[in-house]
Design a protein that fits this description.
0% strand; single chain; mainly alpha; rod-shaped; Eukaryotic RPB6 RNA polymerase subunit; 132 residues
Length: 132
């Protein structure tokens, strides 16, 4: 069994932080049941992931996408669904409220209003002003 070092993998992925992150993502997918592309040789998942990277058996851009997707809390699909949900709720609200019905309710009883005859008397006398 040959030992895998980071130096064997740096040729594939030059940034060591990215290398470790991608290897950890691959190790997680192996733990979840993803098939491995090399012989296990009684190695742990992290070592198998590094050996796969060194052997150039993995699609690195695809592995990057998986890593990014696992770190995101919301996907683009979630944003689109949220926007559609907001638009749908606005349409539902506007459908439920019919302005013509509202105006009918407000002004429906206008003819039945009973006003006192002198309530709107425009003739104000000086006597009325002194009372104020």
């Amino acid at each position: 069994m040959a030992r895998v070092t980071v130096e064997d993998c740096v040729e594939q992925i030059t940034n060591r932080f990215e290398l470790v992150s991608l290897a950890a993502q691959r190790a997680k997918s192996i733990s979840c049941g993803s098939p491995i592309t090399i012989e296990r040789d009684n190695d742990k998942n992290a070592v198998v992931a590094l050996r796969e990277i060194a052997a150039k058996n993995l699609d690195i851009p695809q592995l990057r996408e998986e890593l990014i997707g696992s770190l995101q809390t919301r996907n683009k699909i979630d944003f689109v669904e949220d926007e559609n949900l907001h638009a749908e709720s606005q349409e539902t609200i506007s459908d439920e409220i019919d302005i013509s019905d509202e105006n009918a309710l407000i002004f429906d009883d206008e003819d039945n209003l009973n006003f006192e005859e002198n309530a709107f008397d425009d003739n104000i006398t000086e006597e009325d002003l002194t009372k104020l």
